[in-house]
Give the backbone structure.
Amino acid sequence: MDPIFYTLQDFMTYTEGVTYLLVIATLAGMTVFWWFLTGKDKD
Amino acid sequence: MAHVTTGERKSIFSLFNFIALIVLGVGIYLTYLRFAGGLGAVTNLSDYNPWGIWISFDLLCGVALAAGGYVTSSAVYLFGMKKYHSAVRPAILTGFLGYALVFLAINYDVGRPWRLPYPLVVQQGTTSVLFEVGLCVATYLTVLFIEFSPAAMEWLGLKRARNLVVKLTILLTIFGVVLSTMHQSSLGALFLIVPSKLHPLWYSSYIPIYFFVTSIVAGLSMVIFESTLSHRFFAHKMDETHLKEANGVTLGFGKAASYVLAGYFAIKVLGISSGNLWHYLKTGYGTWYLVELLGFVALPSLLYAIGVRVKSLTLIKWTSVLAVLGVILNRFNVCLIAFNWHLPASERYFPHWMEIGISVFIVMIGLILYRFIVTRMPILYEHSDYKDAH
């Protein structure tokens, strides 16, 4: 169910919170993807 | 040597020439209708939809797909990746022709094309993003012309002028990167003014960044795609160096495109999150957005990566087609499909066949010019007088 926001504070806390978590996941994901992409370069 | 002609001349009665003749004939007639009867005679443009296929395809796609010039020249001359040197001239040529055709297309699209120089010499309008785009595109077209000119000068035997221009290579490359960074992103910034007309999934305050990042993908993918076509049709014009370096270019550019696409996918998802647009994904437009994001961003990124890992040139080459189509789809979505999304179907824009005809005509001019130049000038091989001059 979509969250209900009563104030801008609620909205920003929710969206920024989710976005920050996604940023952490992106940084980790891009590192893993780089390993995947270049993994066979040394062979 | 590969590029030396054997004295045999191909017949002018080829399938390509036959199709080209028809397209040029129809195109010239449509050009007459456009300039004799005005925009209303050949287009479905209206006050609701002043930007049609000539902007979305000829201009937005044309500029994005011509990005191979700055991407390749900066990789070779600024980042020192000399192993991709053989890709520079074809990429610069594609970029130059792309921008020249954008300039040609804009003459069809604007109501009074003779006023195109006005922003430069009459009234600047420095607060307008469009002014910056116009100034950058005009300047970059000049830069690309100078970057391309050594090949023409080698062909014409203008040795001193050629040597002078080659000395400017680094300066021109820096100009190219700066100007491209500015106007590729500014083409996206044009849409910042229409938050109520563009669907929220495509509208974002980060749209200039999206446009710039996708231009890098388009540039890298177009170099691979164009190289594939050149190998198919102009292999006899390539020298040993070009043929030897081609696989490395495909693998290297495929790897770069894969990672840039992955980054683009990430910032698009972050854009949805920061705007809390998740609920739009459940709608029809959301499904279409997911088709673009998963089918034409995530999928090519993964296919490029697999192609690079298993060193499958065929997979990388086919993926470049998918990536190029993805960039075209993105520009169509932003400029046409998701634009004016709230209007009833009767008010929506669909291009007139004559608009499509003129776009095909312009692409055909590009193909003919490309073939003319590649078969005469040292684009796919090094001129014998300038071997190892780099």
Notes: Chain B has one domain: 15-382. The CA atoms of residues 300 and 319 of chain B lie 6 Å apart. Residues 1-7 of chain B have pLDDT under 50 and may be disordered. The two ends of chain B are 20 Å apart (CA to CA).
